[in-house]
Structures are given as C-alpha cells and as structure tokens.
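Budget justification aside, the reviewers requested a transparent look at the raw inputs and outputs of the sequence design task funded under Objective 1. We therefore reproduce one unedited record. The lines immediately below are the structure tokens for a 58-residue chain.
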C-alpha cells in the first residue's frame, strides 16, 4: 500500500475506537461489548434472511 491509504486506514481505525470509547463513557457499555452486540445482531439478521448462499465444493 502507499502511505496515503495507510494513513486513512489508521485514522479511521482510531476514529472508530474513540467513538466506541465515547459510547462506553456515556452508557457504561464497554467497546468490546458494543462491538460484539453489533456483530451478533448482524449475524442474527443474516441468518433470519440470508441473501448469499455458497455452493458445495465436495
């Protein structure tokens, strides 16, 4: 990668982390719990209505 995309990636990662920390400060929910709940809800939603299926390879 060139340096500009790396800087943007790092900047956005820091921004996301700070937003999660701010959420923790305001709600008392840790950034780890918040992240897991987002992933858990996304998986629950997808499993309820899958839009992508993988073909068997064997």
């Amino acid at each position: 990668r060139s340096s500009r995309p790396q800087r943007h990636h790092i900047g956005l990662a820091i921004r996301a982390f700070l937003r999660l920390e701010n959420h923790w400060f305001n709600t008392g929910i840790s950034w780890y719990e918040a992240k897991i709940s987002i992933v858990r809800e996304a998986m629950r939603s997808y499993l309820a209505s899958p839009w992508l299926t993988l073909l068997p390879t064997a």
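The mean pLDDT is 90. The two ends are 36 Å apart (CA to CA). Computational costs for records of this kind are itemized in the attached budget.
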